[in-house]
Structures are given as C-alpha cells and as structure tokens.
Design goal:
It contains 2 helices and 19 strands. It is mainly beta. The protein has 2 domains: about 45 residues, no CATH class; about 180 residues, Glucose Permease (Domain IIA). Strands 5, 6, 8, 9, 10, 12, 14 and 15 form an 8-stranded antiparallel sheet that branches. It is globular, with a radius of gyration of 30 Å.
Amino acid sequence: MFLAGILVGITTCIPYQKVAVSDNNREDVVSIIYPSLTISTPPAELIYPFPNFTKQKLYKTARKPVTIDFSRFDTKNVRTTDPLLFSSGNMLIIDLKNLEEEEFAFPLPGGKVISPFGGRRRRHVGVDIKTCSNDTIRAAFEGIVRMSAPYAAYGNVVVIRHYNALETVYSHNSKNLVKPGQLVRAGQPIALTGRTGRATTEHLHFEVRINGEPVNPAIFYDFSKQKLRKECYNCLRDKKGIQISIVDPFLFQDQYLSTY
C-alpha cells in the first residue's frame, strides 16, 4: 500500500514534458507526453502516427535478362537461341498476367486467320492472318529488333526479341519499317503486309518462338477476339521441345518478382 502511494505521487508530480524526435523526412514523428503537475493522468504514453500504406505493384512486366548484343548470325537467321534463357535449368516462367493494355498489341488488327498453327501443312509453324495488301503490322510487345531482312521462303521478315523471353516473327512483308538493334514499343508499326517469299496471297505469317523453338501463338493470343491471354506460363524444355502449361503458383501475383 505504501509503495502504491509512492508510485501515485511520482506520476502526479512529474512536470509536463514534450519530446520531439525527428528523422530526415518528417518532424514530430514521436511525442512523449508526461503527466502534468496538477492533473492526475495515466502513465506516459507513446504516440506514433503510422502512415497509411497504399498497395503498389512491384513491377509492370516480368522482364527477363535477355541477350540484346546480337551476333552477325543472330541478325541473319530466323532461328537462333539465347544463352541467357534456361541458363539456370530446364524451366522458364513467362508471366503475362500483369501486362497493362499499352504493353501488348495484336499484330494485325482486324485480320482474319486463314491458316492456323500446324494447319493444312504439318510444318506450318505460325499463324497466317489476312487483311489487305500493305496493311500495317504492329509489334506484339516491347522489345528489340533482332532481324530485318529477306530470308528464303519467309520473304521480308522481322524478328523481335522481347524482354518477357518470347520472340515474335512477322514475314511475307512488302516492306520492313525497322532495322536490327532498333528498340520498339508494343503496337509500333514495324512492317507492311505483302506476299514476298513463298506466299500465294498478301498476308502476315506470325510466329511465336521460345529460345528458337516455334510454339503455337494461340497459346498466348485469342485470335477470334484478337486479345492477349494474360496468364502465367510454365515452359519446360525436354527432349520433345518446349512444353507449355498455365500455372499460378504464387499467392499474391503483384507481390513477387519472377526470378526464373
């Protein structure tokens, strides 16, 4: 009882005191308020105004380390590999889930598919899209032009290496509008439709490749709606080639950085 009385006396006789603690960015971050001389108050309290955090995305696109210092072979051949891809194993994650609308484009707006992947010809490794001659072909994603030249049956062809680990191929062009090493944004005009090379009509032959291997573009694009399939893809390299499946292994998609 006597000890309790001493403690009460201490709490009621300590002078009022305010201590301001500041950091480099704010003032009065912490205020310590002691009891006054005349008014009995509770013990000293610590007041800390926590900021209101807003949820932010850590990234807009899952960019991969890709080779952009092209060799002469890279600029002269449609099929080539990137030593940085699959450098840590046989699995690669391609995440298109969080792309904004301005970060992708349909390669030939308004076009109609006249021959799908595989199609009537077993070795057809792309999708043929038709509108009219000299229509504008657009880059599917941001990237860097690896090849822009005539190439055998492809005719005038443009190949773009993208930072998401994909490469896209645009061929039979009447005219190429970009050069190797040129940076392009999604939706930027890169060529005009034509029938150069082995083609019977003016159209765009569009391919998607992973480390040089052609894969079905319909995995990534809904051609009937001319929309990108915004998914997260697991690409497994085995003896049969590149096996692709849709995955969603992360609990919070906007709170991680792809590391594969």
